[in-house]
Amino acid sequence: MRPVITLTTDFGQDDPFVGIMKGVILNIVPDAQIVDITHNIEPQNITQAALILNATYPWFPRKTVHVVVVDPGVGGGSTHKAKKTLEPVIRRAMVVQSKFQTFIGPDNGVLTLGIQPDSRAYEITNKKYFLKDVSNTFHGRDVFAPCAGWIASGIAHSKMGPRVLKPVHLDFPQPLLKGSSLHGEIIHIDHFGNLTTNISAELIHETFPPSATINAQIGKHLIKGLVTGYYQMKKGQPGAIINSWNQLEIFYREDNARKKLKARIGQSVTLKAN
Q1: Are 139 and 218 part of one and the same domain?
Q2: Which of 36, 102, 216, 221 is deepest in the core (most CB within 10 A)?
Q3: 196 within domain boundaries
Q4: In a domain, 190, yes or no
Q5: Burial letters for 157-179: b for 16+ Cβ neighbours within 10 Å, e otherwise?
């Protein structure tokens, strides 16, 4: 099977950055299959990129190499230590070897959800696997893309540099059970304006009896009951459903829930059974 490499960035579609990264990879591993996950991550939105990666990687074959470049700290050195509060902590470049797949990106938390208990993380410091001239502003081209190419071609992860024992982890908001109500929040808004929450189907099933009618409260809006398909709501009506991420989603049939509800990331969503 040809090597598979995925790309997730906040570069957008108007500039040549993504194409340049692909060129670097193909110079190292010409038969690579390069898959674009998305290049429309909000600029510098590390949390969004981590969530997209988490929703995506389980569907890829073994030995896939996932490259994520959402890198507000680009250009920072790899071993510099901050002096109390006078200087920012400068991020490392990192490759994570999991049991079945590989994750490459900045050590800024973007790879949090790809790191499993049996994963091994390595700092990318071996300049043998960089491009010759490393810029201050485009490590996607000069560090991450060549690293992905070399890993996909069979170079051992450990060749990239020393072990990273404590990678940066993002703290994702967790739902809370207060009395008989389950309190969560919006963690992602998709292209259609649908609102994904941090309340999983598993947690709903653990919290409420199977026969219960579950109502969702968002702001002043009460949505009665969960449906199993968008078609079950009339056009222009709101609904609640378990989506393909296996999370609770708030939607408007053939309309935009974000605009209708003036919703935002981090906004509270409460579930309560009748």
Answers
A1: no
A2: 216
A3: yes
A4: yes
A5: beebbeebeebbeeeeeebeeee
Helices (H) and strands (E) counted in the chain, each on its own, are 6, 14
Residue 120 contacts residue 96 (beta carbons within 8 Å): yes
Same domain for 67 and 189, yes or no, is no
Strand partners, 223: 216
d(CA 148, CA 137) in angstroms, rounded, equals 18
Place of tokens 């003036």: 262
- pTM to 2 decimal places: 0.88
Number of domains in the chain: 2
Say if residue 189 is in the same domain as residue 235. Answer: yes
The predicted-structure confidence for 129-173, as pLDDT tens digits, reads as follows 999 988 888 999 999 999 999 999 999 999 999 999 999 999 999
Both 146 and 18 in one domain: the answer is yes
What is the crossing angle of helices 17-28 and 145-152, to 10°?
30
**Domain range for residue 212?**
176-273
Tokens describing residue 29: 């591993």
pLDDT at 84: 43
Q: Region 175-182: what's the mean pLDDT?
A: 95
The mean pLDDT of 51-65, rounded to a whole number, is 96
pLDDT tens-digit map of 63-90: 999 999 998 887 665 443 443 444 455 6
Distance CA 172, CA 83 (A): 27
In a domain, 85, yes or no: yes
